[in-house]
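Re: Re: ligand-bound prediction request (bumping)

Still looking for help on this. To restate: I need the protein modeled with fe (ii) ion bound, output as structure tokens. Inputs repeated here so nobody has to scroll up.
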Amino acid sequence: MWRGAMLHDIGKIGVPDSILHKPGPLTEEEWEIMRCHTTYAYELLSPIAYLRPAIDIPYCHHEKWDGTGYPRGLRGEQIPLAARIFALVDVWDALINDRPYRKAWSREQAYQYICEQKGKHFDPNLVDLFLSIAAPDLAKAAERQVAGEDEAQ
Ligand SMILES: [Fe+2]
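Reply:
Sorry for the wait, this slipped through. Here it is.
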């Protein structure tokens, strides 16, 4: 898992710098090239025996629970568990940090987004657990709110 996480975007070495470092939004054609980084990772890592067990994250970290991800459009538990966990970590990290093309979101906004993507982008069974670790204060506040709403009914 650690090796896979460290190597998750290794396939980007096959993507031109003009796309990787482009300050503005990518065109559809550029996105198509960018999406190849997972397949490049597979091609790069699979011949290396000791890295083969680490391939799930580099190859599958852009798959989505609902089957709309890439490169293979896997859905649900077809997506290796390590990649489902890593997808949460990767998106959370991307949202709460500045990117060349956008400022960091607040933790509250990122929390909300991850919740909205439960069962769409992310494994619904992992979202609550992930958020309880990544943002325990927000998860507890959300729990209290739900409990309060239940009592009010
Ligand atoms: Fe990636």
